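Lecture notes, structural biology module. Today: joint structure prediction for complexes of three components.
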Amino acid sequence: MEEDYFSLSSILADNHKLSCTFLLDVPGLGYLEGGSDPNIHQHGKLELPFWLAQTLSLNEFTTFPLPPAYSNRVRAALNASAPSVRLSNLVGGNGWWYRFGKRIADVLDDRPQTELLNMLLKAFINRLPPLQDLAAHHASTDASVPESGHGTGEAFREGMEGDERELFGIGQDSGRMVKIWYDLPWGRRPSKLS
Amino acid sequence: MSSFFQEPDSDDEIPQLPPELPPLHPVASSSRASSSRPSITQDSFLSRLEATASPRPGIRTDHEDGIGEEMEEEEEEDEYELEEGEVRRLGKAWSRERGTGGILAWEGELVDSLMDKLEQQQKLVDTLKSDPDTSEEEHFKLVLVQTEMERVKYLIRSYVRCRLHKIEKYSYHIILTPSLHSLLSGAELSHAQRYTELLHTHYSHSVLDSLPEWLRKMDDTYGDGLSMVTKPNPNLPVLIYCTRDCGEITLDSGEQAALAKGSTHLVKYRLVETFVLSGQVEVL
Amino acid sequence: MYGDLALQLVTASHRSTLSTTPQLPLPKYALPLILSICLETRQLGTSIASAAESHGQVSLSQDRALVCSLTVQHLAARRNKRCLLAYLHNRVTGIKERWWDAGGGLAYLLSSANNAAVNPDSDAPDLRSALSPQELDFLRGYNNLMLDYKTDFLDVLDLTAGIERPPGEIMVDVRVVRDAGEVVLEGGERVDFRKGERFRLARSAVERLIVQGFLEEV
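The predicted structure, tokenised, for the full assembly:
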């Protein structure tokens, strides 16, 4: 999940919008709002994509609160049962919750930064085992797994955010490849190397 | 052990070949009349086959040193055989290259030596194959020799291509960092240079030339730390196996991890880089 | 809004990279979109330049609102550049992949025969028409680069032969389905592949010809 200039995922993650408050009047910037006012006014709030919000905030033209996707409410839900939380739509449809969270963390002060990073890490660690299980299951059959409790089965799959979905795909593919390899007669076992 | 060489028709199953074929021993003396051409003696080949209990490449056992010694003795006899030691070393280099994110040193001597031997052995095989006096049994053994040759070729091919992939991925970075140049072969460095130019030309002609002049560079670094130049990430984890005791390392979380002989770890590369480069741990 | 077009480009590109198997055909080069984004970026550049000129140094350091306004334009321009390059970069990766999959057979890669083999039932563009002229140049350049690199190894092994799996059987029986003419195999052997003839050869030597459809395994 490194920040790669050429990474399409990173670019898309950076596009998620934040609610920003302007700290000054800016004539002529009204087009950002898309409305009829040609100017931005101090204390005016509008939604800006992160790639704008980050630099504008660092230069103290705007501020933004911690997005609701990383609020205490979400943290509490994750602590209760991480796989139950639908991360998929917290940062826009099929968003990138971890990546975006990391970008936000980069611009926070020390303490809120550590808290946010810990939340991301804990969530990831707790969601990974069910993700692997589900991927392994899907590798061997194409049947859906019914929900047997909170945050299991297909409901969990639908709640996966962008990077988790990619991991799931990899897990599924790997599982299939291993199965193919095992089923081959001895003496003729190609191993698919990636 | 009943040798499948002596009873080729009795077994319907595919014979169990050992995981690693022993090198073949073309020896001047033979059981046949014509001694002017090299041939394969049954005895030495079979005894090697039976004696082989080769461990998986990458995992050393107590036998390792013993086999190494054996190799040295035989080496003088015939310079054409594919040294098991060399193949194994390339296997390890291959594994290291595939398992790590950055660029490692080019094993030029090793590759050159193996290529030479492959060439020699191919000539030998061709000679024997086209000779009408070659027995059916010897033809069969030739198949085994060729199989091993194919495996070694595969290894070289995969090793070279893995490096090429990395070189292309980090080409700008390589060009901009002279200290890395010694890790590459001459051909690789030249490739990095030419590939970077090819890419730059492509980007320029496609879009950069149509953008304002101050946007045309390919090596910018921006205020938030984002760089246009892709570099290897030293924090990528690597799966390692400790062939000997390497003491303890401190993880980012503050915990200690003991790199004891025989243990396996998944750990950030930069924490164990020195051990990987020195060969004290192997990359799986 | 600035950056919207660029977002379209990236979103479409990302969608096409999502499936790993089977490999989808490379989509057609989005020339109109790219031209529009370049235009937008040039306009941003002009706007910034003229604002800097008309306001002078003092304003630029003291008028916070002006700086904010210019910063937004600057960021938008850089964003466009990033999106454009990411789009190109990802396509380059796809192009190289296809070159290696075709065993380095450039002519085959660009031919319509390859297209029929790869996507038989779609009217997706064949590779040649999906590429921009610059991408075609890149492909040719890359092909030459790799041919040069290969020659160091060629008398012993063919770098572009498959590495998907370690070798199994050495020999393979093949029948020629299309004339391939005289071909120099790995190791220097010359074979004349005429339609209908059968051969028993080393798999490594003819794998590429099988992939390209000249030979058929029997």
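Point to remember: The two ends of chain A are 19 Å apart (CA to CA).
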